[in-house]
Structure formats: structure tokens, C-alpha cells
């Protein structure tokens, strides 16, 4: 009897587990299909090649090119800034400092914690910085907020790949008389390049998709930003604002914009995945 | 000697300089949290000086134009939405993580993991759009009528469902890692004693992994606390303490995001919103520090 009950329990939970896994996977499928089927009927070439024309938010012609370009500028600038600050930090933690140093452990902990801070808080903080420097909502403000947002995750993922660079490789470089700086740039970075590029791409994807951090800092505009100090539109906010307009055509365009954003994100994550497999030409195995 | 010195000195100087700059950058980046706390605190000081903390946290009166800033409805809104999300997400995520770790073939695991990564990469606005298109009508037309109540669909439940899906990846990812870190000998010992797989999971694996799983859940909670756009789009944004899951709510992050436009024209309004961001930051930091500390200790004990 006890045996039967044990096996019944085993079966029951096994079934529940498979059910839970399928449910979670189907939620992903449901989201992607909803966005696809709601967005496709409203897709047109105008959506991706034109900026909003007069009366766009009343249902007249135009597209969301301003938001697409704005998002790319913003995420691109933020990624560049984050790499500029993040790569040295990751290199310092793995090449310069002693292995197993307390300080490095504390830094890792700090970045992990920072990684959990929500984007709205980065937005609010970015806003206080902007007020401090007398900046208005602009492309630059958005870039700073997004750069701060993606910095911790970028540092940690670069750190994870640099950690895997074999110690012997660095020692070989030192033995040849290279300084730590040269070793870091010419050996460690080259060895970890695929992983570093993957980290950069994932951070870029997160930068494009984020809305809460730019709502204060980047503003919104119907034109493509011409300078760093002008406001910039972003795709997530374009979706949000268009959804708020109670006109079916405009809402339809919001669905189409959501499709554009989703496809962009999927392409980036696919590229990151391929990159981590392919780009291993200079890697010593 | 001369040619050697000529290249050696600048190279070593460069190395030294680069090291100092990188150390500085590392320290700055690692201290970013403190800078953020200080910045937000400085901005929220005016409202903290003119109102008591008790009033700010426990008053339900939110009338910025009269200088009344009671955060209670928003704090309760956040708690309700997060609570619903956790109730939905935790069982599903644990079952999935256990399945992937203990039962599934490694090939299945390699297939499912990237899909969960994709789920993690979907922007929150897209979750919001999906919530408005699918979850909100479902609640309005199916859930609410079956309880014989009216709801617009924009409710705590809608926010909770959308949030639950958004925190799936965090909880699954971390708890899967924790479960995989349980040594195989432990499982084998249990199985050798005649325990079934589920008994092994229940009595041995989960017991060993419990602190880590708890940390995974806490990380999920803190992610849910701060999620803004998706929740904002489906939760209704009515500044009243909800009394059921079919009521609308107004979580803290939504409050901050919704009022960025008008906050500069009302005295103390911006200060109050920055205080909201500070509260959010402090709570989330507390949760994150606790769960990261648990995970770090586990990682050390495995090694």
C-alpha cells in the first residue's frame, strides 16, 4: 500500500512539474504570438521609414522612425559609455588585482546588488543628476541613465568571462616581459572577446527595451534627435503613448511598434547567442 | 641599456597610470549605490523635513496640491500586486526548476534554458501590451463575471499575472543553479536507500537547497517590487488601498513614472516622488543584499 501511494505521489508531482514547465513556456509563446498577430495587420513600410506626420496621433500618416532611431542612438550611446567604464572595471577585477582579493569579492557583491535595482530608480536618480547639472530631458540624459542601468550587468557578465581566462595564459604574457596593461588589453581581452561582445549585445538589448529609466530623462519628440542635448523618442515610450490615445488606428500602430521592438530584441539576443559560439578564432583553447 | 630604458619607462608608466585609473573607476562604480542613495536622499529632504515619516508612510491622503503626501495606498498597492505575483510564480517556478534539474534529460534542459532567457529579454512594455490585450479582457469577461462582480479588468490580479510571468526567469534561473549545486552523492545515497525520486527531492535535495531557493524567491520579490511599465499599464492606477484582487491598485513605481510631467510645478511634489524612489531603492537593496549574501555563502560551501 505504502509503495503504491509513493508511486502515485511520484507520478502526480512529475505530472505537475511537466505541466508547470509547459505553462511557463506557453506563456512565452502566447506573448510572442499575441504581439505578432496584433502587430502584423498594422505593419507597413511607413512605420519604419517615416517620422510622425502632422495629425499622426489622430490617425493620420507617418511612422515611428523617430522612436526607432532614438532608441538605437540612446542604447548605442549608453552601451558605448558603459563599455568605456565597465571594461576597465572588469579588467581591473581580473587582471590587475590579486586573485581572490577581498576587494574584488566586495565589488562583485556590490554589482550583483546594483543589478537588482529597478530601472525607475535609475530614472529618478538620472533625473536628480540632470537637475544638478542643469540639463533638460535630452538624448544625453537618457544615455547617462541607461548607461548606469546597464553598467552593473555588463561588468558582471564581462567579469564572468574574464574569470575563465586561464591564469597560465596571463603568466606566459608576463614571462615575456609584458606589463599588466599590455597583458590585459592584448591577451585577456582577446581571449575573452566573444564573451565580452555577447555581454555588450545583451546590455544593448536591455537598453533598447527599457522605458522606466528614460521616461524622466530622455523626453519625447516627433523628430529624429539632431544633437545630444535635444530630447529623443524611444520605442517603448512610443508604444506607451500611442496606446494611451483612444483612436483605433493609433493603437494599432502601438501594436505594430511593439512588434518592431520585439523583433529587434529577438534579433539582438539571437546575434549574441551566435556570436558567443562563432567568434572564437583568436581564442586559445 | 639605453634603448631598453627608453621603452621600459613609458611602458611601466602607462601600466601604473592605467592601474590607478582602473582602480578609481572600480571604486566609483562599486560605490554607485551609495551615490544613488545620497542623491535621492538630498532631493527628498524637503518633504522629509516638512512631514513626519509616520505621516508619509501611514497616511492614506494623497493630495499633492494641498501638500499632503501619504504613501500608504501606493505601498499597499505594491504589496498586493507583488503578493499575487509571488503566489502565482513560486509554485510554477519551483516545479519547473525541480523538473529541469532532477527529472529532465539534459537535452531538454539545453532547449528550455534559452527560451527562458528570451522571456527574460522581452521588454516590459511588451509585457504591458500583452497584458492589456489578453489578461485585462480575460479578467473583465471571464474572471470577474464568474465571481459575480464588476471589474474593468485593470486590477491587482492583472498586474500580478503579468508580473508573475516577468519574474519567472529570475526565480527559475537562480533556483536551478542552486539545485544543480547540490552534490550528486546526496541524491544517490537517498535513491540507494529505496526512496523514490520525488521523495529524494522533497526530503533531501530541497532541504539542502532551501536557503538558496528562498534567496531566489526573494530576488523575484525584489524584481517585482520595482517593475514599472508593465504593471502601470494593466493595474488601473487608482490611489486607493485595494480590498480584493479585482480592485485596481496604484503601485509605487507607477506613481513615480506617471507624474514626472506635473511634479515640477507643485511644491514638494518632486521631493515626494524622489522619496518614493528612495523607499523603493532601500527596500530592494535590503532584499538583494540578504539574498545575495545567502547565495554567496552557498557558493563558498560548495567549493
Main features:
heterodimer, A: 285 residues, MetI-like fold, globular, B: 303 residues, mainly alpha, two-stranded antiparallel ribbon, 12 helices
Topology:
The complex is a heterodimer of chains A (285) and B (303).
Chain A: H1 2-39, H2 45-49, H3 65-96, H4 102-115, H5 119-133, H6 139-163, H7 167-175, H8 180-209, H9 214-217, H10 235-243, H11 248-278
Chain B: H1 2-30, H2 32-50, H3 53-58, E1 62-63, E2 68-69, H4 72-103, H5 106-121, H6 124-146, H7 156-180, H8 184-192, H9 197-226, H10 229-234, H11 252-258, H12 269-302
Antiparallel strand pairs in B: 1-2
Helix pairs in contact in B: 2-12, 4-7, 4-9, 5-7, 6-7, 7-9, 8-9, 9-12, 11-12
Describe this structure in words.
- The complex is a heterodimer of chains A (285) and B (303).
- Chain A is mostly helical and 285 residues long.
- Chain A folds into two domains: 41 residues; 230 residues, MetI-like fold, CATH 1.10.3720.
- Chain A is 74% helix and 0% strand.
- In chain A, helix 6 packs across helix 8.
- A two-stranded antiparallel ribbon of chain B has the order 1-2.
- In chain B, helix 4 runs parallel beside helix 7.
- The longest helix of chain B has 34 residues.
- The mean pLDDT of chain B is 89.
- The chains are: A mainly alpha (285), B mainly alpha (303).
- At the A-B interface, helix 1, helix 3, helix 4, helix 5 and helix 6 of A face helix 1, helix 2, helix 4, helix 5 and helix 6 of B.
Fill in the CATH topology of the largest domain in chain A: MetI-like fold
**Biggest beta-sheet profile of chain B:** 2 strands, antiparallel
Q: Output the helix-strand order of chain A.
A: HHHHHHHHHHH
Termini Cα gap of chain B: 48 Å
Instruction: Tell me the total number of β-strands of chain A.
Output: 0
Spatial gap, N to C terminus of chain A: 56 Å
Q: What's the multimeric state?
A: heterodimer
Q: What is the helical fraction of chain B, as a range of percent? A: over 70%
Extract low-pLDDT stretches of chain B. Answer: none
- Output the strand order for the largest sheet of chain B: 1-2
Return residue spans of chain A where pLDDT drops below 50 for at least 5 consecutive residues.
Answer: none
